[in-house]
Design goal:
The complex is a heterodimer. By secondary structure, chain A is mainly α. Helix content of chain A is 72%, strand content 0%. Chain A has six helices and no strands. Chain A has helices at residues 2-21, 29-48, 53-74, 79-87, 93-104, 108-133. By secondary structure, chain B is mainly α. Chain B folds into two domains: 2-110, no CATH class; 116-257, no CATH class. Chain B has ten helices and three strands, in the order H-H-E-E-E-H-H-H-H-H-H-H-H. Chain B has helices at residues 2-20, 25-38, 78-93, 98-110, 116-133, 138-160, 167-191, 198-206, 212-223, 227-257; strands at residues 43-49, 52-58, 65-70. Chain B has a three-stranded antiparallel sheet, with helices on one face. Classes of the chains: A mainly alpha, B mainly alpha.
């Protein structure tokens, strides 16, 4: 439990750092951080539950996109702000690295396996985001600070 | 006559601002249509791509006017996107005149991003955090601060050059900087008798280069049926990832040839 808290806190800090890198508005930093941390936590828990990286990424992307949409309505700010800051933690950077690493080691089979896994994760993220973005905006109206919901 | 031209200009300027700061196609298109409709355009058509837009307008039954904008370079700035979004809401609510909207848009376009040192610092923090998240030790994470900071400075400097390098080359160079600084740091640790995981340090360093934006926006473009723009962004994402892999690979290969360096 304590370890998960540490993971959550570090993922929060990482996402805030990414938010700076993409020039997100400073008043949304905290919400962006929570979005990224939730995505990472789901990913972590799924991996520990024995799921494959791609399936874990799918569930994490679902959670991430859902939280982004909730914040976008609650904060009257485009969902992109939270989504882009939060997604960085899930983009398969390690996969790309290991692909390059095995390639220079001359182990082409391992390089392709890692590259393919990175591609799978990217596609899983895509599917997760698309599914949540397709949900009708009315569902999120309850999170609106004003009685009438605004546009996404 | 004059009003029509001003409304069209406002629409394409808003659309251009969104595109140039990394918004999705759908957002640029929808924002332009909303603004045009709010100012009474009967016919407004816009065609938006990742690197440019075309729009035409017809107001009060007169001739049609058209405008084109080209946005070859995208510099990610979510602050400007959300500011344009807020402005478009107010325009839709009918509280802003055309000229006031122009003034607001000018302010938004003049909004500055974070300074270079802050970017470098953020890149360092991101590298350290990510190195830790991927199972690195605290020492790995602290070591990753160095390549993260170096690459942050390097990309800021690259962005400021007058003749921008192509994406493949610039990402290759940036990833090379990460790998080089990481290898040097890990070797120095080795000499001091500390053991440090090179993988975790490099992965932390390259994470801020990863094409997360291209991936996310590409997905959303495809989901909104902007297939062409989505494809452009997907190619972008693959190129960036390939550049990173090449840069890291070349440096690691070169380092492995240096006697006394153990990867």
């Amino acid at each position: 439990m304590g370890e998960l808290l540490v993971q959550f806190a570090v993922a929060f800090a990482a996402t805030v750092a990414f938010a700076v890198l993409v020039n997100a508005p400073p008043r949304e930093f905290a919400c962006a951080g929570v979005t990224g941390a939730v995505g990472w936590l789901v990913y972590c828990l799924c991996l520990r539950g024995g799921m494959t990286a791609a399936f874990a990424a799918l569930l994490a992307a679902l959670a991430l996109a859902f939280v982004s949409r909730v914040f976008s309505v609650a904060r009257q700010c485009p969902a992109t702000v939270f989504l882009i800051s939060g997604i960085f933690a899930l983009v398969p950077g390690a996969g790309v690295y290991y692909m390059a690493y095995y390639f220079i080691q001359g182990d082409n089979a391992a390089a392709f396996a890692k590259g393919f896994e990175a591609l799978q994760v990217a596609i899983a993220l895509a599917v997760g985001i698309v599914l949540v973005m397709a949900l009708p905006g009315r569902l999120f109206g309850i999170f609106s600070p004003r009685p009438r919901g605004g546009k996404r | 006559m004059e009003k029509r031209r001003r409304v069209l200009e406002l629409c394409v300027d808003a659309g251009e601002t969104l595109l140039a700061n990394g918004a999705e196609i759908y957002r640029a298109q929808q924002t332009m249509e909303l603004i045009a409709r709010s100012y009474g355009a009967e016919h407004f058509n816009a065609y938006v791509l990742t690197n440019g837009l075309i729009a035409s307008i017809r107001l009060e039954g007169a001739d049609e006017h058209a405008a084109v904008r080209n946005t070859p370079r995208v510099d990610m700035n979510l602050g400007r996107i959300s500011a344009v979004n807020a402005l478009s809401r107010e325009i839709v609510a009918g509280t802003v005149t055309v000229e006031a909207a122009f003034a607001r848009l000018a302010v938004i376009r003049a909004m500055r991003g974070f300074p270079g040192w802050m970017m470098a610092l953020a890149s360092a923090v991101a590298a350290a955090c990510f190195s830790f998240l991927l199972g690195g030790s605290v020492l790995d994470a602290l070591t990753a601060l160095a390549p993260g900071f170096a690459v942050g400075l390097f990309t800021c400097r690259l962005a400021r050059t007058r003749a921008p390098l192509n994406k493949l080359v610039s990402n290759m160079l940036s990833a090379g900087v990460v790998a080089l600084v990481s290898v040097v740091c890990v070797q120095l640790h080795g000499m001091a008798g500390l053991s440090c995981d090179l993988d975790k340090v490099i992965i932390g360093g390259i994470v801020s280069l990863m094409p997360g934006i291209a991936l996310t926006n590409g997905i959303r473009d495809v989901a909104n049926c902007d297939y062409l723009s989505g494809t452009i962004r997907a190619i972008d994402a693959v190129l960036v990832a390939a550049g990173i892999a090449l840069g890291v690979g070349i440096v690691l290969r070169a380092a492995s040839l240096v006697p006394g360096v153990y990867l």
